[in-house]
Structure formats: C-alpha cells, structure tokens
Amino acid sequence: MMIKDKYRLFLMALPFLALAFVFCYLPLYGWIYAFYDYRPGIPLAQSEFMGFEWFTSMVSNEVQREEVMRVLRNTFAISTLNILTSVLPVIFAVFLAELRSAKFKKLVQTLTTLPNFISWVLVYSFAFMLFSVNNGFINNLLLDLGWISEPLNILASDDHTWLSMTLWSVWKGLGWGAIMYIAAIMGIDQEIYEAARVDGAGRFRLMWHVTIPGIMPTFFVLLLLSIGNFINNGMEQFYVFQNAMNMHNIEVLDLYVYNIGMTNSNFGFATAVSLLKSLVSLFLLFIANSMSKVIRGESIF
Amino acid sequence: MPVKEKFTMFHFVNYAAFAMITLICVFPFYYLFINTISNNDLSSRGLVMFYPKDIHWTNYADVFRIPGLGQAALISVFRTVLGTVLTVAASAFLGYLFTKQMWGRSFWYRFLVITMYFNAGLIPWYLTMLQLGLTNNFLAYILPAIVQPFFIILVKTFVESTPLALQESAQIDGAGILTIFAKIIFPLITPILATIAIFSAVTQWNSFTDTLFLITDQNLFTLQFILYRYMNEATSIAQLMKQSTGAMVDISNMATPTSIQTTVSMVVVLPILLVYPFFQRFFVKGIMIGAVKG
C-alpha cells in the first residue's frame, strides 16, 4: 500500500471522528460551568465566577450536605442490591442447564429475555396496571382472596423503594443476564462431567465443582464492570417510577443531577455534582481494571 | 446430562420453578393485551384479570384519534429507520477502516473506545446540544447515535476474522478501498450488521430520555414519550375523547384512562413483539461476540 493511502483512509474516517468529538469530547468544555453561577440565556462571560464554591457547599452547607448524603445513600444502596442480585442470572443458568427438554429450555430462554427489550416507560406502564391502588391486578387479586381488606398503594409509597427498584431490574434483566452464563456452560468440556461422575459426584457436586468454576471467569468480569459502574445507575428507571411519595429514597445521583439541573435550572451546582461523579467513576473503573490485572492477569478493556 | 436419568423430584421442582419464572415474565404482556380487547368498563374496574371479556377491537381504531399519537408514531418510525440505517452504515465502514493501515489508527481507535466508559455528564452535554441547535430538532435523535464504539469493535473483530486473501486479490485487480468495501467486505459482514441493526433499532424505538432532555416541540415527540405523558394525563384525554365521540358508540366501550393507557402501551410494544421471535438469535449472537471482545 502506498504511504499516501494512510492519509486517504484517515480522511474517510474523519467525518465520523468529528461526530464523536462533537458529542463526546466537546461537552467536556462544559465543565467550566461548575465554576460559574450560570443561568441559561446569560452569556458565561457575564455570569458570576464562583470558584470552588459549588464544590465546597456540598460539604459546608448543611442542607446541601444532607441532600448529597441522601442521594449517595440511595445510589449505594441500589447499586449494592444490584451487585448482590447479579448472582441470580448465574443460578438461573446453572439450573436451566439441568432441564432436559430442549424445547422447553428454548421457550424459557426466549420468553425470559423478552423484558430486556422493552423500555422503562413500558415497564412503568406494566407496574401501573398490575400494582395500581385503583383496581390494579395485584390489589384486586389480594382483595378477592381476602388477604387484604384495603387496597395497598404500592407505587406511591416509600417503603422498600430500593428493593422494589431492584426487583424491577431483576424482572427486566434476569433472562438476558443469564445468556452469557448459558453459553459459558455449553463451553465446558463434557469429559470433565464424565470424569467427575465416574468418581461418584452427584448432581449438586457437579454443579458446585464443575459448572460453577466453569462460569466463574465470566461472572468475575461482569462483577468488575459493575463495580466500575457503581455510581452510574442511569436515570430512566428512576425517573419514570419517581413520585412525590417515593422521592426521598428513589433519587439516585443521575436523577438528582437531572432534577437540580434541568428541572430547577441550577446548572452550576448540577455540573459540579456530575463532574465529581465522572471523576469518581473514572477512579472506580481504574480500580476495577487494576483488580482484574492482579487477579486475572489481564485488563478488562 | 445422562440420557437414562429418571424424572425425579428435583426435575419436577426445577421445571415448575422455570415455568413460574417464565410466567412472571410473560404475564404483564398478556394482561396488557387482554385488557385492550375487553369491555372497557370492566377493564377499568380491574375485572379483566385472567381472560378477555366481551372482546372488541374498537380501542385500536380509537387510539389514533388521540391528539398527537399519529404524529408521534411517524416520528418514532422515522427515527428508528433513519437512525438504524446510518448507524449500521457508519459502523460497517469505520469498523473496516480500523482494520487498515490508517494514519494514527491505534490513537483514533482508543479515542472512540474511551467514550464508552467516560462522559462529561448530563448538563455539559445538554448545553452543548443547545449551542449546536440540536434542541427541538429531529437531528438530535440521529446525529449522536451514528458513531457507536461498541458496534465498531464488533465489525472490526468480524472483518479481522475474514480471509485477507480476498481483499488482496481484489487489490491486485485494481480495486480501490471503497470498491473493496462495497463489493467484498460488505457482503461478508452482513451477519454482524444484522445484529447491529436490530440492537440499534430497538434502542432507537425505546429511547425516551433524549426527548425528555432536548424536545419541547409536540410535533417531535416520540411514542415512548407520549405514552409516559398519557399515563400522567390519561384522565383528561379520556374526557376529551368522550366529548368528541358522540352518541353512536356503545357506552361501555368508550375510551377510559385505562383503555388509553393499555392500548397506547400495546402500540408501543407491538413492534418489539413482532420482530423479537425472528431476531432473537441475532441478539444472542451480538452479546456473545461482545462478551469475547468487549
């Protein structure tokens, strides 16, 4: 290939690299808003320079400190619950492998993966139909059975908000999360099972000593990735499920940034929070990657 | 698993447990559907629980009389089609370019991959979009979605696994880079492009937050966004439709907040349900390749 060719190739890629620059790198300039009292419509040059005041007020201003602590608590609680429930897809895959009918296995896999492909808005719509206090399915069922005498207002309640958010994530992601483990199990050498069986291992010992070690590497990579994403819960799920009642416990960092920035137009403070969040998240990724290097001998990226 | 093994208590419990889990995953879809075709009055009182009652299909005709829904459906379809075509084309082309000796190849590759793990945050991104004129602009749905590092990795990996000899012989015949891409690479990588297309289409169709952040113009609302709005406003919309219906319609099947919410939900989920059985294997393939290389 001619030397000039490598520049021609670069020029062909350039428009796409420019798009990536505009949408992913250019916004980094916006971090400057974290140091100003910026109001939309007023040019930055005429905005008041705040220095690190937005950052220090997170600690020094008592009201703001409590807000930030509450949001961090929600974020940590929900992320921790998500990490704890990440063993469920493993269990799902291990027991699915024990089903003998290939058709049933396929059916289970197809139908349990489906919820992964609908939006959170639709999940909320389901939640509304099933759990609504006004003639929702669950309330009517429980009333019919005589287990309750008053309809429960499950959606507009702040009891167990962390848990219910986690359960919705599990409902949506369980089947999809299991796919990689199912593939990993199929990749395990059948001779290992044969050998263990000859040695007298029963079903559960095979699971524990052959299947589980076979999928551990996959589990470990995903676990590290979720540690790297510990403070990135996303906001869509929490945005659609939020209401005046559960606000206290549902507001995670991403939703908080949206609520103070976009709803209350406090751009400076919101940018300061999300700047810190980006840095912490980068640090966590770095930790996860180093752990991977030490334990597995290779990086995750 | 051994073939001759008996059907034991373990199997019974295992089958029952998976049947239960599957039922929990599917029941909301079924419940939604039977409520859209049942008597609206019964449905709004929560009396349609396990099977449809007094089946009628008028809700599906009525739903398009809801102001704004037809337009939102057009926007959703349009962004899904255009977004998917452009994302697939860009991923195919860039993935291929990154297998060639491009100037600064490994630098630019990292330049793209980093964006998967790091971003500036919502507010700086929003202000950038605002300054670029991408608020209340249809292009806001399309332009940011075109370059997807993950898809580019998938294509690059796939191209690297195809025999190089094919490209070399075409080069000897005097074919340029674009010709090789169009005539040789493109047909070879269609399986991975199908996977990317389906992922991209589902993401576009389901996208909700970009409308929330960037769009206030009602003509640019998507179905997902309008569904969310309806769930908070269904009562007033039902009122509005009752006024415009006249006396012809059977009173028990007039639009209710429940009928509007369920029917719009069904319209939103239907495309997913229709394509899902045919494309499920592509999803699985996509996540597998991603797992190996991600």
Automatic annotation (TrEMBL), chain A:
InterPro entries: MetI-like, MetI-like_sf, UgpAE/MalFG_permease. Keywords: Cell membrane, Membrane, Transmembrane, Transmembrane helix, Transport. Pfam families: BPD_transp_1 (PF00528). CDD domains: TM_PBP2 (cd06261). One of its GO terms (biological process) is transmembrane transport. It is found in: Cell membrane. Residues 72-288 form the ABC transmembrane type-1 domain. This is ABC transporter permease subunit.
TrEMBL record, chain B:
InterPro entries: MetI-like, MetI-like_sf. Keywords: Cell membrane, Membrane, Transmembrane, Transmembrane helix, Transport. It is found in: Cell membrane. Gene3D superfamilies: MetI-like. One of its GO terms (biological process) is transmembrane transport. This is Carbohydrate ABC transporter permease. Residues 73-279 form the ABC transmembrane type-1 domain. GO terms for cellular component: plasma membrane. It is a multi-pass membrane protein.
